[in-house]
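Hi there, hope your week has been kind to you so far. Would you mind checking whether the tokens look sensible for this chain? I owe you a coffee for this, so here goes:
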Amino acid sequence: MSTWTVYSDTNLDRWLNHRGRLDWVADGETTAALADPDMAFPLTPTGPIHQGIRTEAGLFAAALHVIPAARWVGEVPRHPLPPARPGLIY
């Protein structure tokens, strides 16, 4: 478990502060996007699609997706890995 922050390099009104496990606070627009029950985003530019936020790594990946020009500080989790299937290239 770690504390970290994701912020926008181009819009200082966009940010997320992680405080532990799935405990976080963010600006209103980011909060609305991450709280959407249909939240889904690609783990790589070409997929696969990650549905929902169930882990700290998933929260970090989602924040990188919804915050424009995202940068981060602190000890961030490893990015979730796409499922491995023989011969599949993303």
